[in-house]
Specification:
The structure holds 2 protein chains of 2 kinds.
Chain A: E1 4-6, E2 11-14, E3 19-25, E4 33-38, E5 45-49, E6 55-57, E7 60-65, E8 70-75, E9 84-91, E10 98-100, E11 104-109
Parallel strand pairs in A: 2-11
Antiparallel strand pairs in A: 1-3, 3-8, 4-5, 4-9, 6-7, 7-8, 9-10, 9-11
Chain B: E1 5-7, E2 10-13, E3 19-24, E4 31-37, E5 44-50, E6 65-69, E7 75-79, E8 88-95, E9 103-104, E10 108-112
The chains are: A mainly beta, B mainly beta.
Chain lengths: 110, 113
């Protein structure tokens, strides 16, 4: 089993739609969780941290489900500019560093 | 403040040549990472430095790859006897501590002819 797994997509959604991605992880002791965004031919950039109680930043909501070992990202009212690859990040199995998932590609269409 | 910087931004080399890629992390960040990303693929972890500890080299794909971090700041990734399959974008990231969010540089695009 991979340490961090994501559906690669692509998720094709119309503008204004709500879309959600999940990311499963194998280290049950993970304490650090993040979502990053990567635009085509650019470096990854931090989108938001994921807190135990869940957190929201504008149209973006991140949640953590420890029992089932996954984190989720919900995007409401999708914009064309949301088109990107979304990477989840959690603790590695060894617990000594953070590990990136392979990313989920989102394409928002007019 | 200044972010992570990398140089060169692009490097074209011939098969068999050695290359050096440089990373200047954010000042005060103790952790530094190198990743490789081929077109359309995810991030491939290469090596990780944390403070003065021995680096985690578990991601280096072969002994042609090496990296060092001098004075706990600048890092250099060296690829010896480059092969065409080494062509990729090499990304460097730094973080305040090992479990904090990572900040990425713009990457070095390496093309081996």
């Amino acid at each position: 089993r991979k340490e961090v797994e994501q559906d690669p997509g692509p998720f094709n959604v119309p503008e204004g739609a709500t879309v959600a991605f999940n990311c499963t992880y194998s280290n049950s002791a993970s304490q650090s969780f993040f979502w990053y965004r990567q635009d085509c031919r650019k470096e990854p950039k931090l989108l938001m941290s994921v807190y135990s109680s869940g957190n929201e930043d504008g149209r973006f909501t991140a949640q953590l489900n420890r029992a089932s070992q996954y984190i989720s990202l919900l995007i409401r009212d999708s914009k064309l500019s949301d088109s990107a690859t979304y990477l989840c990040v959690v603790n590695s199995d060894a617990g000594n560093m953070l590990t990136f998932g392979g990313g989920t590609r989102l394409m928002v269409k007019p | 403040g200044a972010g992570v910087s990398q140089s060169p931004s692009n490097k074209v080399t011939e098969k068999g040549k050695d290359v050096e890629l440089r990373c200047d992390p954010i000042s005060g960040h103790t952790a530094l990472y190198w990743y490789r990303q081929s077109l359309g693929q995810g991030l491939e972890f290469l090596i990780y430095f944390q403070g003065n500890s021995a680096p985690d080299k578990s991601g280096l794909p072969s002994d042609r790859f090496s990296a060092e971090r001098t004075g706990g700041s600048v890092s250099t990734l060296t690829i010896q006897r480059t092969q065409q399959e080494d062509s990729a974008v090499y990304l460097c990231a730094s973080s305040l501590a090992r479990m904090n969010e990572q900040f990425f540089g713009p990457g070095t695009r390496l093309t081996v002819l």
